[in-house]
Amino acid sequence: MQRLTTISAVRAASRKARAENRRIALVPTMGALHEGHLALVEQAGREADVVLVSIFVNPAQFGPGEDYETYPRVLEADEDLLRQQGVATHVFAPTVQEMYPDGPAAQRAAVIVDQLTDTLCGAYRSGHFDGVTTVVSMLLHIAQPHVAVFGQKDAQQLAVIRRMVRDLHLPVDIVAVPTVREPDGLARSSRNAYLSPAERAQAPVLYNALRAAAEAVREGELQGRPLVRRMQARVADAPLAEPQYIEVIDADDLLPVDDLQPGQRILLALAVYFGDTRLIDNIPITVPSRT
Ligand code: AMP
Q1: Active site residues
Q2: Alpha helix locations (H) across 186-275?
Q3: Which residues pair with 284 in a beta bridge?
Q4: Is 44 touching ligand 1 by the criterion CB < 6 Å?
């Protein structure tokens, strides 16, 4: 596995792979890798011959007061994990200066997906998705992969990136990987490391609330509001949990749905604070047809 730190080195590796008719998969991450990321890399290995994992804590997607400075940066440990797994062929770990030579604030070009970024996390993290779509399109232009792999864990990010690729006719397939969870149901996240033992003990409430609502849909509930109330009640059982949003939304336009249509693809989604730590989770479901 090779560590690349410059854009020109990635371009050269990509050109070489394409000249040899090898398929390239890109797995964009911010590092502090865990089982969730490794599942993406595993999938990338099934899709392509060259698997490039980017590790870049992108300043442009953090808002003021968010955890950009404290976000875990453990490149050596990340590379050890990837080497053990044996799937990644290249790691791209650029400096901020490599990606933003004049600093992120001096960027004048951006890729923006509107509307889909106004709801859910986008409503609370102003500019976050503009930072994500801009850096992902930079990575796609630099690496020119055939496939890029993303986690269902970040459902809104996935929908926004799919839309960017569709609207801009970008020549890449977007592949999604289901959320990888701890044995107690908590979605794996680099931010779980911020939780105190008491918060960690209560954090499975996110998935429990989502599962309760998914169960209700399976049992025939077709109204959004009672589903939201059910999830709110579950989350309220955890005294340390402070919900930011709890929603039932359409999986494509990400707008809240009240009347669920049979066959409709929806997301049960929530963001919950434990102290300063913000956790998100979701369950995608297709509303069952009435029998
Ligand atoms: P991040 O490093 O948090 O930016 O995440 C990089 C990629 O890993 C994104 O596509 C995430 O959706 C994905 N990811 C993060 N956590 C998980 C998880 N628990 N299961 C599946 N994918 C994940």
Answers
A1: 37
A2: 197-202, 205-218, 224-236
A3: 267
A4: no
**What is the value of pTM for the model shown?**
0.97
* Ligand 1 pocket: which of 56, 153, 164, 188 to mutate (most atoms within 8 A of CB): 153
Write out pLDDT tens, residues 118-144.
999 999 999 999 999 999 999 999 999
The yes-or-no answer to whether 2-177 and 190-284 have a common fold is: no
Encode burial over 193-205: b for 16+ CB neighbours within 10 A, e otherwise: ebbeeebbebbbb
Neighbours of 285 (CB within 10 A): 19
Percent of the chain whose pLDDT exceeds 90: 99
Domain range list for the chain = 2-177, 190-284
For 63-95, write each residue's pLDDT tens digit: 999 999 999 999 999 999 999 999 999 999 999
Sheet holding 265-274, edge to edge: 241-250, 265-274, 277-286
Q: Is the CB of 128 under 6 A from ligand 1?
A: no
| Whether the CB of 188 sits within 6 Å of ligand 1 | yes
Output the CA 61–ligand 1 centroid distance in Å. Answer: 15
Residue 49 has pLDDT above 70, yes or no: yes
Atom of ligand 1 nearest to the CA of 188: 19
Indicate the CATH number for domain 190-284. 3.30.1300.10
pLDDT at 290: 73
Query: Which candidate, 96, 102, 68, places its Cα nearest to that of 7?
Result: 96
| Ligand 1 pocket, residue 150 CB under 6 Å | yes
CATH class of segment(s) 2-177: alpha beta
